[in-house]
Design goal:
seven-stranded mixed sheet, about 55% strand
Length: about 120
């Protein structure tokens, strides 16, 4: 049974940085970060698989870095050069999917409770 607990969100000014942390337990080939802004759909931001392969959304490329996974029991999302458009609830997820269309969820995807990121 996979459990995920996020932390590290907060409020920052545009151009600032935040590091999100997700403590997880269980087994999953794919771990990732998703976000959902006000009135928007949940979208994949960054994923990492058990081989260390990573995948980023276009908006995250060059600014966000995902790390961890495997035996660490944690994954991280380092976010730099934050923009107001990055404001959202960020969710850690297991059993995601990485493919030609980017990071996505599956029927087996499990979610953490979310951590709010606000950029002004």
């Amino acid at each position: 049974h996979v459990q995920l607990v996020e932390s590290g969100g907060g409020s920052v000014q545009a151009g600032g940085s935040l590091r999100l942390f997700c403590e997880w337990s269980g087994s999953s080939y794919c771990l990732g970060w998703f976000r959902q802004g006000p009135g928007g759909e949940r979208e994949g931001v960054a994923g990492i698989d058990s081989d260390g392969n990573t995948d980023y959304s276009e908006s995250a490329k060059g600014r966000f870095t995902i790390s961890g996974g495997g035996a660490e029991g944690a994954i991280y999302l380092q976010m730099t050069d934050l923009k107001p458009s990055d404001t959202a609830m960020y969710y850690c997820a297991s059993d995601c999917a990485m493919g030609p269309y980017g990071l996505g969820q599956t029927l087996l995807t499990r979610w953490g409770q979310g951590t709010q990121v606000t950029v002004s």
